[in-house]
Amino acid sequence: MTKRTDWQIEPGQALNGEAVVPGDKSISHRAIMLASLAEGRSEIDGFLEGEDTRATAQIFAQLGVRIETPEARRRIVHGVGLHGLQAPTAELDCGNAGTGMRLLAGVLAAQRFSSVLCGDASLSKRPMQRIIDPLTEMGAQIASNGGRPPLRVTPAQSLAAIDYSPLVASAQVKSAVLLAGLYADGETIVREPQPTRDYSERMLHGFGWPVRIEPGRVSVSGGGRGTAMAVRVPSDFSSAAFPLVAGLVTPNSELHLRGIGIDARRTGLLAALRLMGAKLEVRPKSLGEADISVYYSSLQGADIPVDLVPDMIDEFPVLFVAAACAKGTTRVRGAAELRVKESDRIAVMATALRKMGVTLVEHPDGIDIVGGALDGAIVDSAGDHRCAMALTIAAGCAGSCSTITDCANVETSFPGFSALWGQLGCSIKESTNELS
Q1: Residue ranges, CATH 3.65.10.10, the chain
Q2: What residues are annotated to the active site?
Q3: CA-to-CA distance for 414 and 401, rounded, in angstroms?
Q4: How far apart are CA 220 and CA 264, in angstroms?
Q5: Which 8-state DSSP code applies to residue 254?
Q6: pLDDT digit string (tens) for 408-421?
Q7: How far, in Å, are 115, 185, 300, 350, 391 from residue 157 at the CA level?
């Protein structure tokens, strides 16, 4: 017998106040990994206390790294160096974390011991061939279930540097290759068809590894050493996207978000929303962070430029909600990657929004959404945390009560989401249902 968590949401009142957003998931994953592979004691402040990032920390503990938790959102990592990881005594469970699994594959491919990377039902359906191929080219030995998890990694004789050009722009593929490149003989190069998130290369540089960052290309030389450092994790822009859009589409709302990470390779949603007429203010407060204020806006449909897609790939579910609330048609193309995320996010959001009365047309790599009034409905998030949160915002704008099914995975990236929504004026009533 399994259990499913559903949310019942009444149409919301105006959302007002300050929204506190958890730490950045991408940076939290990488901070644990690189601190573990560095030498010395690293402190991480602002760590995301989500299920995905905790899974990554637990895996490195299984690999022999001592990780302390002096208080919530802080970690002290006693790095063991590139060659100090130890053989695990059990499978390494990544939970729902595709980032964790793909990046870990790059690290484990170079170890002198065998390991198995597994995950939950959702992660077990996600494609891993995109990292298996380049890692195998480097000499890694990785077996999979038809290109999907679990990944069984056995020791390789050695890893060789490669000059790799991914067919699809992906920060996870780039990162997996670069992490394996730390162990390879020679200089490993990744050439990007489009710029993607640059957290891995920037953090590698911060920890002292020999990485070179150039337009369209990043490279790392094997055999270097990383040195412990202090890492400050800003609030997660992808999590901030939900209250941000909620403030724009809920009448009479005004929300303020503090200390949000605004890496240029992450904030394409801001540009897309501005094209749609969003009223928002971004006030930089320190390097890489800003306070953001949003105000209810009469959004207009827009054609989303293809070159924004890599910089907002995780924000499309909530953009689809903004489009459903806008006047006119919003068109998205070049986003086929959405088909292979935690769910097929185009299909999941299209099915749910149709049930809520939205007129739309699906395409293999995108969607056309005609904005209008939303109806309350029972809709399925397919266990996808970002779809569940996006549909919560849609439900708050609907004409009657809605139920969103299968929402438990919101805890993977945004612990406390329900409580925050209640504080802002939109209550979520949670129920747990037994499934046979």
Answers
A1: 2-23+234-435, 25-232
A2: 314
A3: 23
A4: 22
A5: E
A6: 999 999 999 999 98
A7: 16, 12, 57, 47, 48
Residue 76 has which token pair? 């002290």
Q: What is 2-23+234-435's CATH number? A: 3.65.10.10
> What's the CA gap between 64 and 121, in Å, rounded?
27
DSSP state of 304: P
Residue with tokens 């939303």: 374
Residue 414 contacts residue 22 (beta carbons within 8 Å): yes
d(C-alpha 309, C-alpha 433), whole Å = 37
Helix (H) or strand (E) holding 153, with range, is strand 151-154
Find the range with the poorest average confidence among 246-250, 294-298, 334-338, 422-426. 422-426
Taking phi first (over 0 means left), then psi (-120 to 50 degrees means alpha), and beta for anything else, what does residue 178 get?
A: alpha
Tell me the two tokens of residue 230: 């202090």
In CATH, what number does 25-232 get?
3.65.10.10
Residue 224 CA, distance from chain mean position? 28
**pLDDT tens across 90-130, in order?**
999 999 999 999 999 999 999 999 999 999 999 999 999 99
- Are 335 and 365 contacting, i.e. CB atoms less than 8 angstroms apart? yes
The string of DSSP codes covering 186-235 is: SEEEEE-SS----HHHHHHHHTT--EEEETTEEEEETT---B--EEEPPB
CA count, 13 A, side-chain hemisphere, 411: 8
Residue the block writes with tokens 């200089």: 187
CA distances in angstroms from 366 to 77, 197, 239, 242, 309, listed in the order given: 41, 21, 22, 20, 10
Phi-psi region of 210 (alpha: psi -120 to 50; beta: other; left: phi over 0): beta
Given the structure tokens 């969103």, which residue do they identify? 404
Joined together, the tokens standing for residue 255 give 């929300």
As given in the structure block, the two tokens for residue 26 are 């991408």
